[in-house]
Amino acid sequence: MKARVFDYHDGLNPEEMSNTSVVEGRDGRLWITIVDGVVSDWIDPHHLRHNDLAPPVHIQSMFVNGHAQVIGDKTPFPAGVNRLQIGYSAPSLAAPERVMFRYRLDGVDRDWVSAGTVRQAVYTNLEPGRYRFKVIAANEDGVWNTEGASMELNIPPTFLQSQTFKALCLVFVAAALWGAYHFRVRQISNQLRLRLEERTAERERIARELHDTLLQGVQGLIFRFQAAAARVSHDPVVRQSLEQALDRADELVAEARDRVVQLRRTKIEGSLPQILERSAARIFTGSLVETRLTVEGASRDLSALVEEELVSIANEFMANTLQHSGARRLDIAVNYGRKSLSLQLSDDGKGIDLETLNRKGREGHFGLPGMGERARKIGASFDISSQPGAGVMMSMNVAAVSAYLRAHRRFFRISTVSN
Questions:
Q1: Is the pLDDT reported for residue 91 higher than 70?
Q2: What share of the chain has pLDDT > 90, as a percent?
């Protein structure tokens, strides 16, 4: 009987392995005997062959989104790679079915991926960018070809992944925020205008009531007193007293009519610097306080409500400067900015202590709280600061859309007026 000799890498098929036995011969060979037949196999453990030749590795095919792609470093890829399949091989004449593979895609895989005997790498939903694919292989005896094969991949972005699209998104978001800001500013401005209209209507109503009821009634009483005075006795003392009372009544009626006219007037005459200049001259007349007025920017007409509240706040500050600070100088600065109107007043008086500032004024005094309330009424920022012995500084800023009327503008100027 002639024995059939198998290479040591070859094995028996599973069916033969179920009925086998191994016997060691005197020469050291291992004999594998199949019980069902006379065929025997043997292996000589002392003369086993080892394959030291690492298999060469080749990248054979590539499919992008199911379509075959030409292999090459400069191969253009389509935008938006949903599925990438790379086929590779490593020829081996000894035992090709036992060749093992590892691969890695730089930028995706942190370490080598053990593929076993699988000869294909699959990637899905790759982001745009540059990648490097590398594959290595080992023969049946575990000898690795560490050089392997590699190729560069350059996946371009789709329009939605491009920098242009991202820039457009940023522009759109910025435009949306800018539009929302302007919408909010216009909304606040409209609210201020509505409040101004309501306030103006209320003042006109009060003026009508005063004119139609109180003033008319007082005027009628004066006429009756004049008629009674004409019939009174010729006592000069009594007559003189009546005439003096009637004269005083006429003066009160005249003052009341002036008040009615002021209530009906929706805007103070003159620009804001002119109004502040007149107020400073009136408040500090006869005092030692020197006032200095500075105007910057192109003078513009203001909303009546904003102008009135700013003047009222400034008058309160100047009155406090005269009564409490002991200052010798007051600086007023008006800045017609493009984005906002700012008003700043500062003196060189004794200042306000920190506790009073933190409590927004002394108990029973409402000057500081009142100024803050007026500023909030027109949507203005309000800040007041002081150091004992270093004077007080107050500043306000009103958004341009709320402060300015769109109509008349004057040329840019910087002026200084001293009192």
A1: yes
A2: 21
According to the model, what pLDDT value does residue 113 have? 93
Q: Is 59 helix (H, G, I), strand (E, B) or coil?
A: strand
Pairing of strands 329-336, 290-302: parallel
What span, in angstroms and rounded, lies between the C-alpha atoms of 386 and 353?
Answer: 7
Rounded CA separation 150/136 (Å): 9
Higher pLDDT, 74 or 331: 331
Contact 33, 40 (CB under 8 A): yes
Could you tell me if 383 and 345 are in contact, meaning their C-beta atoms sit under 8 angstroms apart?
A: no
Structure tokens, 143: 């000898």
CA dist 287 and 276 (Å) reads: 17
Q: Is the pLDDT of residue 111 over 80?
A: yes
Q: What is the pLDDT of residue 4?
A: 40
CB within 8 Å of 264: residues ≥ 6 apart: 203, 204, 207
- Its pTM stands at 0.43
User: Which amino acid is present at 203?
Assistant: R
Torsion over CA of 318, 323, 328 and 330, rounded to 10 degrees?
-10
What span, in angstroms and rounded, lies between the C-alpha atoms of 234 and 240?
10
Alpha carbon distance 343, 307 (integer Å) = 11
With CA atoms as reference, report the closest residue to 132 among 155, 161, 156: 155
In this predicted structure, what is the pLDDT of residue 341? 93
Give the Cα separation of 86 and 91 in Å (integer): 17
Residue with tokens 């309160």, as numbered in its chain = 316
